[in-house]
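Structure in, sequence out. Go:
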């Protein structure tokens, strides 16, 4: 990658990174994601197969292109770019059996999304870490098209929030926080999400489709554990997924939720730059 270009952000000499091992249809992949000083994803390296093979070259090229998109000079936060890239890579592949390993593109999408979720819940890591992917358990055709719950970060599984003393907010700061909340509610992406959410909650047919899809996915997973999945079961699930994805109310909710998720980190970034600390990490639940 040509780091001398003015269009590409300079790479620091040292970057903290994390490597994930995940099975793919073409062999085991090792995905390394490096982060900048603001804990935003900056580089992605993908390694699959033997050096010199076409599979290895294609995987390396995919990582280089993702890294280029993340390092380009842009006002869009890297985390938002990473989420959009991951959404573009999902459901790519020719695997017919939902229990089979994903394509390299789908595997990279899962790792990136899992890494983004983890980054919302944990403080920046100062050393290189390695972990075995837990994201390979969900079949690619079962990947939900959106998250149904709130936008708030979740507590890291297995970790309890660390008790910290609370400092009462001054009246001035409380008023400023309330004003920020009011303005956020009026902001385009958040307002559109709230409207789409209200429409979906009021649409019995859309809610029924989601309930049927959730039940069908659970049934297929149960059948997979006992080896009793049949082709008609898979065809029925895919047909139901297609019906959900063609429902305008549901797809609008999914789209506006993702846009709101991509918008809020920009607010965190602005606050972080104003106060000189990583606001998003400090505002999340502390853990030990």
């Amino acid at each position: 990658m040509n780091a001398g270009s003015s269009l590409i952000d300079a790479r620091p000499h040292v970057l903290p990174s994390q490597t994930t091992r995940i099975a793919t249809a073409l062999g085991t992949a090792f995905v390394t994601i490096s982060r900048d000083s603001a804990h935003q994803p900056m580089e992605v390296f993908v390694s699959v197969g033997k050096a010199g093979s076409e599979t290895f070259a294609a995987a390396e090229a995919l990582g280089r292109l993702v890294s280029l998109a993340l390092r380009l000079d842009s006002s869009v936060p890297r985390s938002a770019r990473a989420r959009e890239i991951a959404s573009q890579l999902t459901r790519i592949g020719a695997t017919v059996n939902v229990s089979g390993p994903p394509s390299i593109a789908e595997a990279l999408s899962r790792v990136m999304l899992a890494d983004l979720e983890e980054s919302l819940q944990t403080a920046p890591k100062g050393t290189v870490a390695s972990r075995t992917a837990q994201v390979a358990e969900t079949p690619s055709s079962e990947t939900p098209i959106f998250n149904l719950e709130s936008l708030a970060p979740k507590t890291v599984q297995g970790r309890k929030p660390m008790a910290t003393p609370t400092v009462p907010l001054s009246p001035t700061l409380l008023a400023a926080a309330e004003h920020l909340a009011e303005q956020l509610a009026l902001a385009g992406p958040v307002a559109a999400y709230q409207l789409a959410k209200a429409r979906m909650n009021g649409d019995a047919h859309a809610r029924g489709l989601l309930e049927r899809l959730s039940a069908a996915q659970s049934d297929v997973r149960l059948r997979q554990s006992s080896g009793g999945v049949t082709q008609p079961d898979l065809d029925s699930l895919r047909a139901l997924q297609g019906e959900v994805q063609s429902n305008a109310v549901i797809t609008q909710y999914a789209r506006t939720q993702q846009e709101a998720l991509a918008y809020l980190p920009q607010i965190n970034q602005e606050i972080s730059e104003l106060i000189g600390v990583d606001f998003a990490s400090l505002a999340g639940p502390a853990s030990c």
